[in-house]
Design a protein that fits this description.
By secondary structure, the chain is α+β, with helices and mostly antiparallel strands. It has 19 helices and 7 strands. The strands form 2 sheets. The protein has a 5-stranded mixed sheet with strand order 3-4-7-5-6. Strands 1-2 form a two-stranded antiparallel sheet. The chain is globular, with a radius of gyration of 22 Å.
Length: 374
C-alpha cells in the first residue's frame, strides 16, 4: 500500500540494530518533507487515521523466532505493545526499519509478512477465513479494511477476465518498499495458508523503485512483479474468485459480518484510542466484564488514564459502550437464529430485563418490537 504518515518524531535505533538506508528506506524526516504538502491535498484521506493493530505488529516476534534472530531491543519494543493497541503507521515503519537493520537484504518484508496468521489480524482475518470463496474473502477485506487500518483504502475491481485488489487512493505516494512488501506478502501468505495449493497471482505491482534484486520478489509471488507502477496492486485471473475456501463457515461469517458492520457504524471517527477501547469491548462483552476497571486492566492502563484519554478524544466511557452495544444489538436482532437471551449474553447484560431497558432507552422501543419492524 501507499501511505501518507503523520510524522510525530524521528526514529531511533539501538547499537545492535544498525540503520541501513537502502531500497527506499530514507529517513523519517525526509518522508515528512516529501509528503507534508501532499498530505494536505483534499483528495487524500486523513493520514493520521492510518494505523495497524498491536497483534499485527507482533508478527515481527514470529519472524525473529523463525529465523533465530536475537535483537533484544527490537523484541522489547514490540512486546511493549498490547495486542489490541492501535499503532500509528509511522511507528510501524520504524519497527520494520529496525527489523531490516537486524538482517538487511532485499525481500526482508516478504519474510516478515509470510509469518502472518489469523491471530495477527483479528476479526478481519477470521471474517476472511470464514468466507465461502476467494472472491467473497477479498470483498470482505475491502469492506472492513477500516477495522484493521482505521481507514478504508483497498479497491477490488474486475476488468474483463482479470481481477485486481489495489490501493490507488494514494497513487504513488509511499513510505517505501519495505512497508508495502510486508503488507502484500501478509495478504498473499494469509490466502495461501487458507487455500491449499492456491494459484499464484498474475502480477504484483509496487510504486517504489526496483530493488537491487527484483528476482527475489518474483520468486516469492510466483509471477511478474513490476516496480515504479502508479500504485500497489495484486492482479489475478477473474475466475480465481470462485475458488472455494476449505475454512468456509457461513454461520460464523454471519456473526462476524454483523460484528464488523456494527463496529464500523459505531466507530468514533478516526480516533485511534476510542477505536482501541471499542475492540476491548468486543472481547469482554460476552464475558460480561465491561466495567471501567475491567477495560483499563485489559489495556494495561489505569482507570484515570482511560477516562482522561477518552475525555481528550471527546468521548465518555459509558457513551462509547452504549453506542457499541446498540449497534451490536441491532445487528444481532436482524438475525432470526439468535434468541433475545443469546443476544443478551453476547452484549454482556446479566439479565434480559436489563437489556430490554437499555435498548428501549437507546431506540425508544423494546428489542422484540424493533425486531418485528426490521
Amino acid at each position: 500500500m501507499s501511505w501518507l504518515p503523520e510524522i510525530m518524531g524521528q526514529s531511533s535505533v539501538s547499537s545492535d540494530e544498525v540503520m541501513v538506508e537502502k531500497g527506499g528506506l530514507i529517513g523519517l524526516t525526509d518522508h515528512a518533507k516529501l509528503l507534508s504538502n501532499r498530505a494536505m491535498t483534499p483528495n487524500y484521506p486523513d493520514p493520521s487515521a492510518i494505523r495497524v493493530n498491536g497483534s499485527y505488529v507482533r508478527v515481527l516476534l514470529d519472524w525473529l523466532d523463525q529465523y533465530q534472530l536475537s535483537a533484544p531491543t527490537l523484541r522489547a519494543a514490540v512486546s511493549r505493545l498490547a495486542p489490541g493497541e492501535q499503532v500509528p503507521l509511522i511507528q510501524w515503519l520504524e519497527l520494520l526499519r529496525r527489523a531490516y537493520a537486524v538482517s538487511p537484504g532485499d525481500g526482508r518484508g516478504l519474510e516478515i509478512g509470510a509469518c502472518i496468521g489469523p491471530g495477527h489480524v483479528g476479526v478481519l482475518g477470521y471474517l476472511v477465513q470464514a468466507s465461502d470463496n476467494l472472491g467473497q474473502a477479498l470483498y470482505a477485506y475491502q469492506r472492513f479494511e477500516s477495522l484493521f487500518y482505521g481507514i478504508r483504502m483497498a479497491e477490488v475491481v474486475i476488468r474483463g477476465d482479470e481481477a485486481e485488489i489495489g490501493w490507488p487512493v494514494y497513487g504513488g505516494l509511499s513510505l517505501g518498499l519495505l512497508v508495502d512488501e510486508t503488507a502484500i506478502s501478509a495478504l498473499i501468505s494469509f490466502l495461501r495458508k487458507i487455500v491449499p495449493n492456491a494459484p499464484n497471482p498474475a502480477e504484483v505491482t509496487f510504486s517504489s523503485p526496483a530493488p537491487d534484486n527484483p528476482a527475489v520478489y518474483e520468486a516469492f509471488f510466483g509471477c511478474p512483479v513490476r516496480f515504479g507502477a502508479p500504485y500497489v496492486a495484486v492482479r489475478f485471473p477473474a475466475d480465481y474468485l470462485s475458488i472455494p475456501l476449505p475454512t468456509a463457515n457461513p454461520a460464523l461469517r454471519q456473526i462476524l459480518d454483523r460484528q464488523s458492520v456494527a463496529l464500523s457504524n459505531a466507530l468514533p471517527g478516526n480516533d485511534p484510542f476510542a477505536f482501541q477501547v471499542q475492540q476491548v469491548f468486543l472481547r469482554l462483552l460476552p464475558d460480561a466484564r465491561v466495567s471501567l476497571k475491567d477495560v483499563a486492566n485489559e489495556m494495561a492502563i489505569s482507570v484515570r488514564t482511560l477516562q482522561r484519554r477518552l475525555t481528550q478524544s471527546g468521548q465518555t466511557f459509558q457513551g462509547l459502550l452504549d453506542r457499541t452495544r446498540q449497534e451490536l444489538a441491532q445487528s444481532y436482532l436482524r438475525d432470526p437464529s439468535l434468541s433475545l437471551f443469546e443476544i443478551t449474553m453476547l452484549l454482556g447484560f446479566a439479565e434480559q430485563s436489563s437489556f430490554n431497558r437499555a435498548f428501549k432507552q437507546w431506540v425508544g422501543v423494546s428489542p422484540g418490537a424493533w425486531r418485528g419492524d426490521n
